[in-house]
Amino acid sequence: MAIRTFDKQALPSRNSESSFSLLLQFDPLQESPSSLFRAAAQFADAFQTLDSAATHSIDGHITTSLTILGFENGSLRTWFASILRSIDDEALKDLNLKKLIGAYLVRVKYAAVDWLEDDNPKKIVELEARITEEAIKTDVRLIPAYSPPSRGLLLDSVRRLGMAKELLADGDEVHFESKFGTLELDTRQRLDVTKIEGVEIASETTHPLRGSLLTVKKPDYLGHSQWQLKFGDRTVRATIADQVWLARFHSREVGLQPGDAIKVDGEYSLLLDKSGAPLSERVVVKRVYGVEYQPYSIAPPLDL
After folding, report:
1. In what order do the strands lie in the sheet with 173-178?
2. Distance between CA atoms of residues 48 and 67, nearest Å
3. Cα(299)–Cα(195) distance, rounded to whole angstroms?
4. What are the residues whose beta carbons fall under 8 Å from the beta carbon of 82, sequence distance 6 or more?
5. How far apart are CA 157 and CA 283, in angstroms?
6. In 3D, which of 175, 169, 113, 108 has the Cα closest to residue 135?
7. Smallest Cα–Cα separation from 165: which of 5, 11, 296, 24?
């Protein structure tokens, strides 16, 4: 993903229909700074993928860049705009497509985030219909070359949005704000792309894990299948199949907190769609050998 800056005279204002902001509110005394900035970058990556899905449905030759308009102090608020990098100059003169498409791209992001936060069973056809509605509202649908967005790119976009949320702690707040409305994202809600109606799983690849040390992002204190483990720089859902160790953990015989790591044998699986794009990844822990505890540190006293 390319995040670029341009001549300020050519950039839209923060109050334009082509701009939007992402506000991350967090507890500075508990939050890991690296996780926060990784989440912000992951959100930007997801929005860039949404731009690709939306612009390719208009014209496959259009390219965009997600541009940072600025930051605000306090919580982490970033202002963005999607800038058209390649399009017919004559078309821009005749149809004012630059402004029209800019507003359309923000509406597509709003629709995707709103769909993601819906508690009802998710259907990819409903998101596709929402995007078509936005194309009609902004007159993008009247462009002769317009066609429905790629389902694969849409699924990749919402998967990336889900991954961004998983990088945040439960107490964090995320707000998507634009001229078309404000949405609050539920950081506790997790997306399983394979459960979306209309998703077709084409293949699955698996890799054994032997003596792997995996950091625990979130334990499942009641069951066995809602664990979240760090796998590389990603958060992956995990099932603990070692019933003996799991019983010891649930009875509090084994102490474990987020940030600690477990040494395991198991299996990593990756589900792919027909285009080869990743849909979901999961870890099954077959045996837990032990826990590596995160070093405990005492904060220095404040100067009063």
Report:
1. 3-4, 63-72, 76-86, 19-25, 173-178, 181-185
2. 10
3. 43
4. 18, 47, 51, 64, 65, 66, 67, 102, 105, 106
5. 22
6. 108
7. 24
Name the nearest CA neighbour of 149 among 166, 135, 139, 136.
Answer: 135
DSSP per-residue string spanning 213-274: EEEEEE--SS-SS-EEEEETTEEEEEEE--HHHHHHHHTTSS---BTBEEEEEEEEEEEE-T
Q: Which amino acid appears at position 206 of this protein?
A: T
CA distance 80 to 102: 11
The per-residue b/e assignment along 91-122, b for 16 or more CB within 10 angstroms, e otherwise, is eeeeeebbebbbbbbbbbbbbbbebbbeeeeb
* Cα–Cα nearest to 128, from 196, 43, 59: 196
Q: Counting beta carbons within 10 angstroms of the beta carbon of residue 265, is it exposed (0 to 12), middle (13 to 18) or buried (19 or more)?
A: middle
Residue 101 β-bridge partners: none
Per residue in 118-157, pLDDT tens? 888 889 999 999 998 998 888 888 777 778 888 888 888 9
Burial class of 302 by CB neighbour count within 10 A (0 to 12, 13 to 18, 19+): exposed
Locate 140 and state its tokens: 């993008």
pLDDT at 216: 92
Write down the H helix ranges in the chain: 33-56, 89-95, 97-117, 124-137, 151-166, 243-250
Residue ranges of the chain with pLDDT lower than 70? 1-12, 29-33, 60, 73-74, 85-96, 296-304
Q: Tokens in use for 242?
A: 């070692």
